[in-house]
Specification:
Layout: E1 2-5, H1 11-22, E2 27-32, E3 37-42, H2 50-55, E4 59-63, E5 83-85, E6 88-90, E7 96-100, H3 107-119, E8 124-126, H4 144-157, E9 161-165, E10 179-182, H5 190-197, E11 203-206, H6 213-225, E12 231-235, H7 253-260, E13 265-267, H8 269-273, H9 276-288, E14 293-297, H10 315-332
Parallel strand pairs: 7-8, 7-14, 8-9, 9-10, 10-11, 11-12, 12-13
Antiparallel strand pairs: 1-3, 1-4, 2-3, 5-6
Helix pairs in contact: 3-4, 3-10, 5-6, 9-10
Length: 333
């Protein structure tokens, strides 16, 4: 349930109303914008007399929210959420250019790529330390040493870093990581999501390979229900019957998510297409449809990459993509 307050309501009146509602064992989420203040009521709202609440002088309107996700719902929070990580903002008009190798392979490699993508306009460095792979015989990442090398790249460039967590038992290793990524395979690992919700770290939550938009939002709700509202959603393609690409990039999810949630939405065209030659047009399309950022895999030597070289761009190719994305964003603004 949401209660929209009138424009002239004072802070004292708002507190009095929220105290009354909390006395009914409800959680009250307050979203204060320029035009209105919205109270989101979470819990057993059946005990709230809607007619009584609606009759109060300070209340403009009262509505029931049918969607199961509450805190992620735009109805509860009409203004866009801006997530900040390492001084970089994402959402609410701030666009993030996230780039780096699929997997950290060496100190020389990660620092070289970091410097290259930064020169081309990347604002956040990505790199895998823990790699969930379909085959147990494939390269699994450098693990804690990979995080150490990412931190060296951060020190060398000043760029905030994002890397994927696979198990909550390794959370201590992510203390200095700016954004923790939850991969597609862990999107519905609810125990992991709850634990990440107890941190204050920004969480980049990728859509699962066969999950609906509502299921993605419900996974975000798991994180937010524990107190962490710094969630970034990532569309990275879903599994369909089509075999021409690695996955099917559902760009329609971007405007749909913007309608339904206040959380920022970024797009990963690298994992979606699985082919380097398709990354540029899909990155351009992501920018055109209103994404709050793009996440692209860049490797200094894709032919010899230990992981996902086929979908990785060279630094030079990334520079061209970044320039095109900037022009598209200027055109649509």
């Amino acid at each position: 349930m949401i209660a929209i307050l009138k424009r002239n309501v004072t802070d004292e009146q708002t507190k009095s109303l929220t105290d009354w509602l909390k006395a009914m064992d409800l959680d009250v989420h307050i979203s204060k914008g320029q035009e209105m203040t919205v109270l989101g009521l979470i819990g057993d709202t059946s005990r709230v007399d809607m007619d009584l609440l609606r009759s109060l002088d300070m209340v403009e309107s009262v509505k029931r929210v049918s969607e199961p996700y509450k805190q992620a719902n735009r109805k509860f929070h009409p203004q866009d959420t801006i997530v900040e990580a390492g001084g970089i903002r994402i959402g609410g008009g701030y666009f993030a250019m996230i780039a780096g190798p699929c997997s950290v392979e060496s100190e020389e490699q990660i620092i070289s790529v970091a410097r290259s993508v930064q020169e081309s306009g990347a604002t956040i460095l990505r790199g895998g330390a823990f790699k969930p792979r379909t085959s147990p015989y494939s390269f699994q990442g450098l693990r804690d040493d990979g995080i150490r090398l990412l931190l060296e790249a951060k020190k060398a460039t000043g760029m905030p870093i994002v890397t994927e967590i696979m198990n909550i038992s390794t959370l201590d290793l992510f203390e200095d990581v700016d954004i923790i990524q939850v991969g597609a395979r862990n999107m519905q690992n609810f125990d992991l999501l709850r634990e990440l919700g107890k941190t204050c770290k920004p969480i980049l939550l990728k859509r699962g390979l066969a999950n609906t938009i509502e299921e993605l939002l419900m996974s975000a709700e798991y994180i937010m229900s524990e107190g962490n509202t710094n969630v970034i959603l990532c569309e990275r393609g879903i599994r369909t019957f089509e075999q021409a690409t690695r996955n099917t990039l559902d760009l329609s999810a971007v405007p749909v998510l913007h309608e339904r949630t206040h959380l920022p939405v970024v797009v990963d065209p690298s994992h979606a297409t699985g082919q380097a030659r398709l990354v540029a047009p899909m990155a351009a399309a992501a920018a055109a449809c209103g994404a709050d950022g793009i996440m692209i895999e860049v490797h200094n030597d894709p032919a010899h990459a230990l992981c996902d070289g086929a979908q990785s761009l060279t630094p030079e190719e990334f520079s061209a993509v970044a320039d095109q994305v900037r022009k598209i964003r200027e055109a649509i603004q």
